[in-house]
């Protein structure tokens, strides 16, 4: 009898886990419904950098990259920065693109507070439109040939990003 109850609990737990996974997948698919599709060529990135020389996208050719769109006022973006920093420190090409900011100083403060170790580009409305960004954070994984592999809106765990980089 005790063994039968244990089996029932395990089955219930597995069903609950499957339902939770399905809900998470459905929400992710709904949030990303308007993002650029996989296999398409990634749009141009802005050349203006927060600090340093102008950004040359040619430096990414032959490298897979994470292009992370964020806003300085976005609370979820703040939570994601440690993960992006960790990946950048390990040699993953991470490009941050600030959108929806009042002035450059707001972006500078955000980058300083979060000790960003990757290039921060200054995007504008046209950049957001070209990349279909209408919520923050929005992340794209771009392959070695400049094609979009993955797109996601909202918080992404380090494991989730690592899996998308495979």
Query: Approximately how much helix is present in the residues?
Result: 40-55%
Q: What's the CATH H-level homologous superfamily of the largest domain?
A: Glutaredoxin
Query: What is the number of domains?
Result: 2
Shape: elongated
CATH topology of the largest domain: Glutaredoxin
Structural class: alpha/beta
* pLDDT averaged over residues: 87
The succession of helices and strands, N to C, reads HEHEHEHEEH
The first-level CATH class of the largest domain is given as: Alpha Beta
Distance between the termini: 45 Å
Tell me how many strands there are: 5
The value of Rg in angstroms is 19 Å
Largest sheet: 5 strands, mixed
Brief account:
The chain is built from 5 helices and 5 strands; from the N terminus they run H-E-H-E-H-E-H-E-E-H. The protein is α/β, with parallel strands linked by helices and 166 residues long.
Q: How would you characterize the overall build of this protein?
A:
With 166 residues, this protein is an alpha/beta fold. The chain has 2 domains: 1-31; 36-165, Glutaredoxin (3-Layer(aba) Sandwich). The chain is 42% helix and 16% strand. The protein has helices at residues 2-31, 75-89, 104-113, 125-130, 158-165; strands at residues 65-70, 93-98, 120-122, 138-142, 148-153. Strands 3-2-1-4-5 form a 5-stranded mixed β-sheet, covered by helices on one side. The longest helix has 30 residues, at 2-31. The mean pLDDT is 87.
